[in-house]
Design a protein that fits this description.
Elements: E1 5-9, H1 13-24, E2 28-32, E3 49-51, H2 62-79, E4 84-85, E5 89-93, H3 98-110, E6 115-117, H4 119-125, E7 136-140, E8 144-146, H5 148-161, E9 165-167, E10 172-178, E11 181-186, E12 189-193, E13 195-198, H6 204-207, E14 216-226, E15 239-241, E16 247-251, E17 257-262, E18 268-269, H7 286-295, E19 305-313, E20 320-323, E21 330-334, H8 344-357
Parallel strand pairs: 1-2, 1-13, 2-9, 5-15, 13-21
Antiparallel strand pairs: 3-8, 4-8, 5-7, 6-7, 10-11, 11-12, 14-17, 14-18, 14-19, 15-16, 16-17, 20-21
Bound molecules: flavin-adenine dinucleotide.
Length: 373
Protein backbone atom coordinates (compact mmCIF):
# COMPACT_ATOMS: atom_id res chain seq x y z
CA UNK A 1 0.00 0.00 0.00
CA UNK A 2 1.46 3.43 -0.91
CA UNK A 3 2.39 5.65 2.04
CA UNK A 4 -0.01 8.47 2.86
CA UNK A 5 1.42 11.77 1.57
CA UNK A 6 0.74 14.76 3.82
CA UNK A 7 1.92 18.33 3.25
CA UNK A 8 2.28 20.71 6.20
CA UNK A 9 2.08 24.41 5.36
CA UNK A 10 3.95 26.43 7.99
CA UNK A 11 6.47 24.73 10.27
CA UNK A 12 6.10 27.15 13.18
CA UNK A 13 4.69 26.32 16.61
CA UNK A 14 1.96 23.92 15.50
CA UNK A 15 3.27 22.85 12.10
CA UNK A 16 6.59 21.54 13.46
CA UNK A 17 4.67 19.40 15.97
CA UNK A 18 2.36 18.05 13.26
CA UNK A 19 5.30 17.19 11.02
CA UNK A 20 7.05 15.32 13.86
CA UNK A 21 3.91 13.38 14.76
CA UNK A 22 3.35 12.44 11.10
CA UNK A 23 6.99 11.37 10.73
CA UNK A 24 6.72 9.13 13.82
CA UNK A 25 3.74 7.36 12.23
CA UNK A 26 5.55 6.52 8.98
CA UNK A 27 3.67 9.09 6.88
CA UNK A 28 5.43 10.60 3.83
CA UNK A 29 5.46 14.12 5.35
CA UNK A 30 6.61 17.33 3.66
CA UNK A 31 6.75 20.75 5.32
CA UNK A 32 6.75 24.16 3.60
CA UNK A 33 8.00 27.21 5.49
CA UNK A 34 8.29 30.84 4.35
CA UNK A 35 11.36 31.26 6.57
CA UNK A 36 12.99 28.41 8.55
CA UNK A 37 11.90 26.53 11.70
CA UNK A 38 12.67 28.57 14.83
CA UNK A 39 12.43 32.01 13.15
CA UNK A 40 11.14 34.93 15.27
CA UNK A 41 8.75 36.64 12.80
CA UNK A 42 5.57 34.71 13.65
CA UNK A 43 4.04 33.75 17.01
CA UNK A 44 7.03 31.86 18.42
CA UNK A 45 9.58 34.61 19.14
CA UNK A 46 10.84 36.35 22.27
CA UNK A 47 12.73 33.46 23.94
CA UNK A 48 10.12 32.55 26.58
CA UNK A 49 6.52 31.34 26.91
CA UNK A 50 4.65 30.56 30.11
CA UNK A 51 3.83 26.91 30.78
CA UNK A 52 0.96 26.32 33.21
CA UNK A 53 -1.61 23.58 33.54
CA UNK A 54 -3.98 25.82 35.51
CA UNK A 55 -6.70 27.07 33.18
CA UNK A 56 -8.06 30.59 33.52
CA UNK A 57 -10.57 30.59 30.66
CA UNK A 58 -12.20 27.23 29.97
CA UNK A 59 -11.81 24.00 31.95
CA UNK A 60 -12.32 21.94 28.79
CA UNK A 61 -8.71 22.72 27.85
CA UNK A 62 -7.42 20.74 30.85
CA UNK A 63 -7.14 17.34 29.08
CA UNK A 64 -5.33 19.00 26.14
CA UNK A 65 -2.74 20.59 28.43
CA UNK A 66 -2.39 17.33 30.38
CA UNK A 67 -1.70 15.42 27.15
CA UNK A 68 0.68 18.19 26.03
CA UNK A 69 2.60 17.85 29.31
CA UNK A 70 3.16 14.14 28.55
CA UNK A 71 4.36 14.81 25.01
CA UNK A 72 6.61 17.66 26.23
CA UNK A 73 8.42 15.03 28.34
CA UNK A 74 8.78 12.83 25.26
CA UNK A 75 10.16 15.79 23.30
CA UNK A 76 12.77 16.50 26.00
CA UNK A 77 13.84 12.87 25.84
CA UNK A 78 13.90 12.67 22.04
CA UNK A 79 15.71 15.97 21.47
CA UNK A 80 18.04 15.74 24.48
CA UNK A 81 17.26 19.45 24.99
CA UNK A 82 15.76 21.33 27.90
CA UNK A 83 12.80 22.84 26.07
CA UNK A 84 11.01 23.88 29.29
CA UNK A 85 12.34 24.91 32.70
CA UNK A 86 9.72 23.80 35.22
CA UNK A 87 10.43 25.57 38.48
CA UNK A 88 6.91 26.79 39.17
CA UNK A 89 4.51 29.52 38.10
CA UNK A 90 1.90 31.80 39.68
CA UNK A 91 -1.62 32.85 38.71
CA UNK A 92 -2.49 36.10 40.53
CA UNK A 93 -5.63 38.17 40.91
CA UNK A 94 -8.76 38.87 42.89
CA UNK A 95 -10.65 35.76 44.05
CA UNK A 96 -13.79 37.56 42.80
CA UNK A 97 -12.55 37.66 39.17
CA UNK A 98 -14.16 35.01 36.94
CA UNK A 99 -10.75 33.98 35.56
CA UNK A 100 -9.38 33.47 39.07
CA UNK A 101 -12.45 31.46 40.05
CA UNK A 102 -11.85 29.26 36.99
CA UNK A 103 -8.18 28.95 37.98
CA UNK A 104 -9.08 27.81 41.50
CA UNK A 105 -11.50 25.24 40.11
CA UNK A 106 -8.91 24.07 37.58
CA UNK A 107 -6.28 23.61 40.30
CA UNK A 108 -8.74 21.79 42.54
CA UNK A 109 -9.84 19.37 39.80
CA UNK A 110 -6.35 18.71 38.42
CA UNK A 111 -5.18 16.31 41.12
CA UNK A 112 -1.75 17.94 40.83
CA UNK A 113 0.01 19.79 43.67
CA UNK A 114 -0.75 23.48 44.12
CA UNK A 115 -0.87 26.07 46.91
CA UNK A 116 -3.05 29.14 47.38
CA UNK A 117 -1.42 32.21 48.97
CA UNK A 118 -3.43 35.05 50.49
CA UNK A 119 -2.23 38.61 49.97
CA UNK A 120 0.08 38.58 53.02
CA UNK A 121 1.70 35.29 52.05
CA UNK A 122 2.07 36.42 48.44
CA UNK A 123 3.84 39.60 49.61
CA UNK A 124 6.07 37.58 51.95
CA UNK A 125 7.03 34.91 49.40
CA UNK A 126 7.26 37.10 46.30
CA UNK A 127 7.89 40.69 47.43
CA UNK A 128 8.51 41.75 43.82
CA UNK A 129 4.69 41.85 43.43
CA UNK A 130 2.60 44.76 44.76
CA UNK A 131 -0.84 43.10 44.73
CA UNK A 132 -4.24 44.75 45.05
CA UNK A 133 -5.87 44.44 48.49
CA UNK A 134 -7.34 40.95 48.88
CA UNK A 135 -5.50 39.44 45.88
CA UNK A 136 -4.56 35.78 46.04
CA UNK A 137 -2.05 33.69 44.09
CA UNK A 138 -2.06 30.04 43.02
CA UNK A 139 1.40 28.48 43.01
CA UNK A 140 1.83 25.55 40.63
CA UNK A 141 5.15 23.66 41.01
CA UNK A 142 5.02 22.10 37.51
CA UNK A 143 4.50 25.46 35.82
CA UNK A 144 7.47 27.22 34.29
CA UNK A 145 9.08 28.61 31.16
CA UNK A 146 9.11 27.24 27.61
CA UNK A 147 11.88 28.06 25.10
CA UNK A 148 9.75 28.65 21.99
CA UNK A 149 12.26 29.07 19.15
CA UNK A 150 14.32 26.10 20.35
CA UNK A 151 11.17 23.99 20.66
CA UNK A 152 10.17 24.69 17.05
CA UNK A 153 13.68 24.18 15.63
CA UNK A 154 14.40 21.02 17.65
CA UNK A 155 11.01 19.45 16.86
CA UNK A 156 11.44 20.16 13.15
CA UNK A 157 14.88 18.55 13.43
CA UNK A 158 13.34 15.41 14.93
CA UNK A 159 10.86 15.23 12.06
CA UNK A 160 13.70 15.48 9.53
CA UNK A 161 15.64 12.75 11.35
CA UNK A 162 12.57 10.54 10.94
CA UNK A 163 12.59 11.17 7.19
CA UNK A 164 10.30 14.20 6.79
CA UNK A 165 11.31 16.86 4.25
CA UNK A 166 11.16 20.60 4.98
CA UNK A 167 11.26 23.12 2.14
CA UNK A 168 12.75 26.18 3.86
CA UNK A 169 12.29 29.69 2.41
CA UNK A 170 9.40 28.29 0.34
CA UNK A 171 6.22 30.30 0.89
CA UNK A 172 3.11 28.48 -0.28
CA UNK A 173 1.12 30.62 -2.71
CA UNK A 174 -2.00 28.51 -3.18
CA UNK A 175 -3.75 25.36 -1.93
CA UNK A 176 -6.34 23.61 -4.13
CA UNK A 177 -8.32 20.45 -3.53
CA UNK A 178 -8.71 18.40 -6.72
CA UNK A 179 -10.06 14.97 -7.64
CA UNK A 180 -6.51 13.60 -7.16
CA UNK A 181 -5.93 15.10 -3.72
CA UNK A 182 -4.57 18.47 -2.64
CA UNK A 183 -2.20 20.64 -4.70
CA UNK A 184 0.28 22.94 -2.97
CA UNK A 185 1.82 25.67 -5.16
CA UNK A 186 5.11 27.42 -4.38
CA UNK A 187 7.39 29.57 -6.54
CA UNK A 188 9.28 26.38 -7.51
CA UNK A 189 6.26 24.43 -8.75
CA UNK A 190 3.36 22.31 -7.57
CA UNK A 191 3.24 19.24 -5.30
CA UNK A 192 0.41 16.74 -4.85
CA UNK A 193 -0.65 15.31 -1.49
CA UNK A 194 -3.42 13.10 -0.13
CA UNK A 195 -4.01 15.60 2.69
CA UNK A 196 -2.59 18.96 3.71
CA UNK A 197 -2.39 20.51 7.18
CA UNK A 198 -2.33 24.32 7.20
CA UNK A 199 -0.64 25.78 10.31
CA UNK A 200 0.16 29.20 8.89
CA UNK A 201 -0.55 31.31 12.00
CA UNK A 202 -1.08 34.99 11.15
CA UNK A 203 -0.89 34.28 7.42
CA UNK A 204 -3.86 31.85 7.37
CA UNK A 205 -6.34 34.42 6.05
CA UNK A 206 -4.11 35.32 3.11
CA UNK A 207 -3.75 31.66 2.12
CA UNK A 208 -7.33 30.61 2.96
CA UNK A 209 -9.61 33.68 2.57
CA UNK A 210 -12.55 31.55 3.79
CA UNK A 211 -11.19 32.12 7.33
CA UNK A 212 -11.05 35.92 7.12
CA UNK A 213 -14.39 36.36 8.91
CA UNK A 214 -13.27 34.16 11.81
CA UNK A 215 -9.62 35.02 12.40
CA UNK A 216 -8.29 38.37 13.58
CA UNK A 217 -4.55 38.91 13.35
CA UNK A 218 -2.77 41.08 15.92
CA UNK A 219 0.77 42.35 16.34
CA UNK A 220 1.69 41.71 20.00
CA UNK A 221 4.36 43.67 21.86
CA UNK A 222 6.72 42.08 24.34
CA UNK A 223 8.68 44.54 26.52
CA UNK A 224 11.66 43.81 28.75
CA UNK A 225 12.30 45.79 31.96
CA UNK A 226 15.47 45.80 34.06
CA UNK A 227 15.21 45.39 37.84
CA UNK A 228 16.23 48.58 39.65
CA UNK A 229 18.34 46.62 42.15
CA UNK A 230 20.70 43.67 41.69
CA UNK A 231 19.18 40.39 42.88
CA UNK A 232 15.59 41.73 42.87
CA UNK A 233 14.37 39.08 40.41
CA UNK A 234 16.41 36.16 41.74
CA UNK A 235 13.40 34.25 43.06
CA UNK A 236 10.44 35.55 41.04
CA UNK A 237 8.60 32.81 39.12
CA UNK A 238 6.85 33.46 35.80
CA UNK A 239 3.30 34.65 36.41
CA UNK A 240 0.00 35.60 34.85
CA UNK A 241 -2.36 38.19 36.36
CA UNK A 242 -6.05 37.68 35.57
CA UNK A 243 -8.37 40.34 34.11
CA UNK A 244 -9.17 43.23 34.64
CA UNK A 245 -5.44 44.03 34.91
CA UNK A 246 -4.36 41.12 32.74
CA UNK A 247 -0.63 40.82 32.16
CA UNK A 248 2.04 38.17 32.33
CA UNK A 249 5.72 38.22 33.15
CA UNK A 250 8.72 35.97 32.66
CA UNK A 251 12.20 36.60 34.08
CA UNK A 252 15.05 36.47 31.56
CA UNK A 253 17.45 33.56 32.16
CA UNK A 254 20.07 35.67 34.02
CA UNK A 255 17.29 37.33 36.09
CA UNK A 256 18.42 40.89 35.47
CA UNK A 257 15.14 41.75 33.72
CA UNK A 258 11.57 40.65 33.23
CA UNK A 259 9.62 40.31 29.98
CA UNK A 260 6.07 41.65 30.28
CA UNK A 261 3.12 41.09 27.95
CA UNK A 262 -0.41 42.54 27.93
CA UNK A 263 -3.77 41.29 26.62
CA UNK A 264 -5.56 41.33 23.27
CA UNK A 265 -7.02 44.85 23.43
CA UNK A 266 -3.60 46.46 23.60
CA UNK A 267 -2.43 45.13 20.26
CA UNK A 268 -2.46 46.59 16.77
CA UNK A 269 -4.41 44.84 14.00
CA UNK A 270 -2.07 43.13 11.53
CA UNK A 271 -4.21 41.88 8.64
CA UNK A 272 -1.11 41.62 6.46
CA UNK A 273 1.65 40.62 8.90
CA UNK A 274 4.49 41.22 6.42
CA UNK A 275 3.47 44.86 6.05
CA UNK A 276 2.64 45.82 9.65
CA UNK A 277 4.99 48.22 11.45
CA UNK A 278 7.16 46.00 13.68
CA UNK A 279 8.63 48.70 15.94
CA UNK A 280 6.53 49.52 19.03
CA UNK A 281 5.38 53.15 19.13
CA UNK A 282 6.02 55.16 22.33
CA UNK A 283 2.26 55.54 22.95
CA UNK A 284 1.87 51.76 22.89
CA UNK A 285 4.26 51.47 25.83
CA UNK A 286 2.12 53.63 28.17
CA UNK A 287 -0.04 50.68 29.36
CA UNK A 288 3.13 48.69 30.08
CA UNK A 289 4.43 51.57 32.22
CA UNK A 290 1.14 51.68 34.15
CA UNK A 291 1.26 47.94 34.86
CA UNK A 292 4.93 47.99 35.88
CA UNK A 293 4.59 51.04 38.14
CA UNK A 294 1.47 49.65 39.81
CA UNK A 295 2.22 45.92 40.17
CA UNK A 296 6.01 45.50 39.81
CA UNK A 297 7.50 48.68 41.31
CA UNK A 298 10.99 47.17 41.58
CA UNK A 299 11.33 47.32 37.79
CA UNK A 300 12.53 50.34 35.82
CA UNK A 301 9.33 51.38 33.93
CA UNK A 302 11.29 52.32 30.78
CA UNK A 303 11.83 49.13 28.77
CA UNK A 304 15.32 48.18 27.69
CA UNK A 305 13.96 46.18 24.74
CA UNK A 306 10.70 45.83 22.84
CA UNK A 307 9.78 43.39 20.08
CA UNK A 308 6.63 42.47 18.18
CA UNK A 309 5.16 39.10 17.22
CA UNK A 310 2.12 37.96 15.25
CA UNK A 311 -0.78 36.07 16.84
CA UNK A 312 -4.22 35.07 15.53
CA UNK A 313 -7.48 35.20 17.51
CA UNK A 314 -11.04 33.95 17.17
CA UNK A 315 -13.91 35.96 18.71
CA UNK A 316 -14.26 33.59 21.69
CA UNK A 317 -10.58 32.48 21.74
CA UNK A 318 -11.49 28.89 20.83
CA UNK A 319 -9.19 27.83 18.03
CA UNK A 320 -10.04 26.11 14.75
CA UNK A 321 -8.82 22.49 14.83
CA UNK A 322 -10.47 20.63 11.98
CA UNK A 323 -11.08 20.35 8.25
CA UNK A 324 -11.50 23.36 5.97
CA UNK A 325 -15.28 23.92 5.49
CA UNK A 326 -15.00 23.52 1.68
CA UNK A 327 -11.94 21.25 1.37
CA UNK A 328 -12.32 18.10 3.51
CA UNK A 329 -8.74 16.96 2.82
CA UNK A 330 -7.28 20.22 4.13
CA UNK A 331 -6.93 20.34 7.94
CA UNK A 332 -6.62 23.82 9.43
CA UNK A 333 -5.03 24.61 12.81
CA UNK A 334 -5.48 28.32 13.53
CA UNK A 335 -6.55 31.02 15.98
CA UNK A 336 -4.54 30.02 19.04
CA UNK A 337 -5.54 33.30 20.68
CA UNK A 338 -2.53 33.94 22.91
CA UNK A 339 -2.53 30.59 24.71
CA UNK A 340 -1.35 28.01 22.18
CA UNK A 341 2.27 27.33 23.00
CA UNK A 342 1.85 25.29 26.14
CA UNK A 343 -0.47 22.87 24.33
CA UNK A 344 1.30 22.74 20.94
CA UNK A 345 2.52 19.12 21.30
CA UNK A 346 -1.07 17.91 21.87
CA UNK A 347 -2.47 20.07 19.06
CA UNK A 348 0.27 18.71 16.79
CA UNK A 349 -0.74 15.17 17.67
CA UNK A 350 -4.42 15.93 17.05
CA UNK A 351 -3.55 17.62 13.74
CA UNK A 352 -1.60 14.57 12.58
CA UNK A 353 -4.41 12.22 13.61
CA UNK A 354 -6.97 14.39 11.79
CA UNK A 355 -4.82 14.19 8.65
CA UNK A 356 -4.31 10.42 8.90
CA UNK A 357 -7.80 9.16 9.72
CA UNK A 358 -9.90 12.12 10.80
CA UNK A 359 -10.06 10.86 14.38
CA UNK A 360 -8.08 12.70 17.06
CA UNK A 361 -7.68 10.76 20.33
CA UNK A 362 -8.31 13.91 22.38
CA UNK A 363 -11.68 15.63 22.59
CA UNK A 364 -11.19 18.72 20.44
CA UNK A 365 -14.89 18.87 19.57
CA UNK A 366 -15.45 21.94 21.78
CA UNK A 367 -12.98 23.88 19.63
CA UNK A 368 -14.04 25.35 16.33
CA UNK A 369 -14.40 22.95 13.39
CA UNK A 370 -16.80 22.48 10.45
CA UNK A 371 -19.43 21.07 12.83
CA UNK A 372 -19.28 23.94 15.31
CA UNK A 373 -19.16 26.72 12.69
C1 LIG B 1 4.01 37.66 22.33
C2 LIG B 1 3.30 36.36 22.54
C3 LIG B 1 3.29 35.78 23.80
C4 LIG B 1 2.66 34.56 24.01
N1 LIG B 1 2.72 33.97 25.24
C5 LIG B 1 2.26 32.71 25.40
C6 LIG B 1 2.49 32.01 26.62
O1 LIG B 1 3.12 32.55 27.54
N2 LIG B 1 2.04 30.73 26.73
C7 LIG B 1 1.36 30.11 25.71
O2 LIG B 1 0.97 28.96 25.87
N3 LIG B 1 1.12 30.76 24.53
C8 LIG B 1 1.56 32.02 24.36
N4 LIG B 1 1.39 32.67 23.17
C9 LIG B 1 0.62 32.02 22.11
C10 LIG B 1 1.45 31.07 21.26
O3 LIG B 1 2.77 31.53 21.12
C11 LIG B 1 0.75 30.94 19.91
O4 LIG B 1 -0.61 30.56 20.14
C12 LIG B 1 1.39 29.93 18.99
O5 LIG B 1 2.77 30.19 18.89
C13 LIG B 1 0.71 30.00 17.60
O6 LIG B 1 1.34 29.07 16.75
P1 LIG B 1 1.02 29.00 15.20
O7 LIG B 1 1.62 27.72 14.71
O8 LIG B 1 -0.43 29.25 14.96
O9 LIG B 1 1.80 30.25 14.54
P2 LIG B 1 3.35 30.41 14.19
O10 LIG B 1 4.20 29.85 15.26
O11 LIG B 1 3.54 31.84 13.81
O12 LIG B 1 3.56 29.49 12.91
C14 LIG B 1 3.05 29.82 11.63
C15 LIG B 1 4.14 29.48 10.63
O13 LIG B 1 3.61 29.42 9.32
C16 LIG B 1 4.57 29.99 8.44
N5 LIG B 1 3.82 30.39 7.24
C17 LIG B 1 2.83 31.30 7.18
N6 LIG B 1 2.35 31.38 5.93
C18 LIG B 1 3.05 30.49 5.18
C19 LIG B 1 3.01 30.13 3.81
N7 LIG B 1 2.14 30.70 2.95
N8 LIG B 1 3.88 29.20 3.38
C20 LIG B 1 4.76 28.60 4.23
N9 LIG B 1 4.85 28.93 5.55
C21 LIG B 1 4.00 29.86 6.01
C22 LIG B 1 5.13 31.15 9.24
O14 LIG B 1 6.36 31.61 8.71
C23 LIG B 1 5.26 30.51 10.61
O15 LIG B 1 6.51 29.87 10.76
C24 LIG B 1 1.99 33.92 22.94
C25 LIG B 1 1.97 34.51 21.67
C26 LIG B 1 2.64 35.71 21.47
C27 LIG B 1 2.65 36.29 20.08
Amino acid sequence: MPRLRVGVVGTGTMGAQVLWQLSKRGVDATGFETHAPGHPRGAAGGETRLFRTIEIEDLRYAPIVTRAHEIWAELHEATGRELRVLDGSLVLGSPADPQMRTALESARRSGRPYEVYDEAELRARHPQHAPDPGDIAIWEPIGGTIKPELTVAATAGLAERNGATIHRHSPVREIRETSRGVTVATDSGESEFDRVVVAAGGWTNQLLPRFADLLTVRRLISAWFFAKEAGHLDTIPPFIRTVPNYCYGLPVPDRTAMKIGLGYDHHMAADRPDEVERVARPAELAPFRRIVERYLPGLDPDPMRTDTYIETYTPDHREWVGAHPDMPNVIVLAGFSGHGFKMCPAIGEAGAQLAIDGAPALDVGFLRNPGSG
